[in-house]
Design a protein that fits this description.
2 domains; globular; 18 helices; alpha/beta; 7-stranded mixed sheet; binds pyridoxal-5'-phosphate; 4-stranded antiparallel sheet; Aspartate Aminotransferase, domain 1; Aspartate Aminotransferase, domain 2
Length: about 450
């Protein structure tokens, strides 16, 4: 094979100018790895949704994310963020981020293992371990890598991880990367977990077991029945991991999360800085030997860059404030209650629990969800549109912040009311039917 002028092999796409290299070349060389990107029905839907202004994903926000945001030049009530305690704009948190940049620079340009562990990591790890009442903690660059790293490192050949069927994608992805088995049990059904564990233990050669649940589920805002799950783990010698991403700072004494609130004594806790802690990063809390094991063997910790200093400084300041300022927890839960009960009174199908800042609004189908999302945004309310497979049934995921005012929640409620009174969703559906397939499913990851 002689090289062509631009260095591509003879007979290649570059040579015959077709872009793919002609039929003979294709059959010789096999299918193009990019083909799925050019011809994909879901992607086509995504693009048409974008053209019709109905694509709820990757919206560009042009200012800070507080109780209201600037969206396309308008002031919009923000019900689509995980900034539960309202700390992303707190002057003390901003200042701590700035101080960290002044002291450590903008990045560490390396992994924690080699040159990326700062004194901020150590201080944060001590605080976090103390907060979740476990002996040690280890900070990761994101919450996602914390879960993926923990599960893929711990669940080795012969072992199994039992995940609640609604557990976060990062737990499932960790299991997929692991050499051990992934088993699912029915959402929030300890008996389903027990059946799975019993069957696992009855098999010869079954190794260790990790049970992984979210303390508060990210989309529905419901709590895991931790005491029952703990009891099942105890009966079958399994270790319990509780993902406190949506609970830390928000529930439990001093915001310590669902495990401390319920006295469930988990073996491991995962937390993230990207929600109540107003930053980016994550951590695993657990026994010192497990944390040391992760330090040495956890590839998603070893082979990625460490947190930027500003994110650590912000998370540290936010964690200190979150532990101390109980009023934020009281405010966020009371505002969520106001929103939840207001929506229910208006006839919306609302889920979630009273002790959660997440208020899911169930919508019959994907098209209705997209139309409602757009109608709300046009009238000044930002929500998250969540559709299968990220969730089982389409919904608008709303959530509140401690720093919302009651007037802002009421403003959002009056928009919901206006939409319901004028039948905006049904009218929008009728107009758009035929343009979208009813089974439209865009892949969206849970926040
Ligand atoms: C329950 C849960 N676990 C883990 C994560 C991952 O955390 P992060 O966004 O910090 O990577 C998230 C956030 O998306 C989450 O909702």
């Amino acid at each position: 094979m002689s090289p062509s002028r631009d260095g591509a092999p003879a007979g290649s796409a570059a040579e015959d100018g077709s872009g793919l290299g002609g039929a003979a070349a294709t059959s010789r060389r096999g299918p193009d790895i990019f083909a799925k990107c050019a011809r994909n029905p879901e992607l086509d839907m995504y693009r048409s949704a974008e053209q019709l202004g109905l694509n709820p994903f990757y919206r560009e926000i042009t200012g800070e994310i507080g109780p209201t945001i600037l969206y396309e030049g308008s002031d919009v009530v923000m019900l689509g963020s995980n900034n539960y305690l309202g700390l992303t704009t707190d002057p003390r948190v901003r200042e701590a981020a700035r101080d960290a940049v002044d002291r450590y620079g903008t990045g560490v340009t390396g992994s924690r293992l080699l040159n990326g562990t700062l004194s901020l990591h150590t201080e944060l790890e001590e605080l976090l371990a103390d907060w979740v009442r476990l002996p040690a903690a280890l900070v990761f660059t994101t919450g996602y890598t914390a879960n993926v790293g923990l599960v893929s490192t711990l669940v080795q050949s012969g072992d199994a991880v039992f995940c609640d069927s609604a557990a976060h994608a990062s737990l499932v992805d960790g299991a997929r990367l692991a050499d051990g088995m992934l088993r699912a049990f029915q959402h929030n059904r300890p008996n389903s977990l027990r059946r799975g564990l019993r069957s696992w233990r009855s098999q010869a050669g079954g190794g260790g077991v990790l049970v992984a649940v979210d303390g508060i589920y990210s989309m529905e805002g419901d709590w895991a029945p931790l005491p029952e799950i703990r009891a099942a783990c105890d009966d079958y010698g399994a270790r319990l991991l509780v993902d406190e991403a949506h609970a830390l700072g928000v529930v439990g004494p001093s915001g310590a999360g669902t495990a401390v609130a319920t006295g469930a004594r988990p073996d491991l806790v995962m937390g993230t800085f990207s929600k109540a802690l107003a930053s980016c990063g994550g951590f695993i809390g657990g026994p010192a030997d497990v944390i040391d094991y992760l330090r040495v063997f956890c590839r998603p910790l070893l082979f990625t860059a460490s947190n930027v200093p500003a994110s650590l400084g912000a998370a540290l300041a936010a964690a200190k404030i979150a532990r101390e300022e109980d009023w934020r927890r009281e405010a966020v839960l009371s505002l969520a209650h106001r929103l939840r009960s207001g929506l229910a009174q208006l006839g919306y199908q609302v889920g979630g629990e009273t002790s959660s800042s997440i208020v899911p609004v169930h919508v019959g189908d994907v098209l209705s969800a997209a139309v409602l999302w757009r109608a709300l945004l046009d009238r000044g309310v930002y929500t998250n549109c969540s559709i299968p497979p990220a969730v089982q049934r389409p919904m608008l995921r709303t959530s509140v912040m401690a720093t919302h005012t009651e007037a802002q929640i009421d403003r959002a409620l009056s928009v919901f009311e206006d939409i319901a009174r004028h039948g905006v969703v049904d009218a929008g559906r009728e107009r758009l039917e035929g343009l979208f397939e009813p089974e439209l499913e865009l892949d969206a990851s849970a926040p």
